[in-house]
Amino acid sequence: MRMIGVDIGGTFTDLVLADLQTGVMQIHKTPTTVGDPAVGMVTGMLELCEMTGTTPGEVGRVLHGTTIATNAVLEHDGVEAGMITTEGYRDILHIGRHQRPQHYSIRQEIPWQDRPLIARRNRRTVAERLIPPRGEVLVPLDEAGVAAAAEAFRSDGIEAIAICFLFSYLNPAHERRAAEIVREVHPGAYVSCSAEVSPQFREFERFTTAAMNVFVGPKVRDYVRRIAEEMRGRGFRADLLVMASNGGMATADMVAEKPVTTLLSGPAAGVMGGAWSGGLAGRDRLITFDVGGTSADIGLVVDGVFAEATARDTWIGGFPVMTPMIDIHTIGAGGGSIAHLDAGGGFRVGPRSAGATPGPAAYARGGDQPTVTDAHVALGRLDPDNFLGGAMKLDAVAAGEVMQDLAERLGLGLDEAAAGVLAIANANMANAIHTRTVQKGLDPREFSLVAFGGAGPLHGAEVAQILGMREVIVPPYPGIASAVGLLTTDLKYDAIRTAFQTTGALDLAAIGQAFDEMQASLEAQLAADGVAPEDRAFERSGDLRYAGQGYELRAGFPAGPIDAAAIETACAAFAAAHREEYGHDFPESPIEIVNLRLTAVGRTPDLVEPAGQPALRQAEPIHEVDVVFRAGGALERRRTPVYRRADLGVGEPVEGPAIVVQTDATTVVPPGATCATDAAGNLIVSLE
Question: pTM of the entire structure?
Answer without folding.
Answer: 0.87
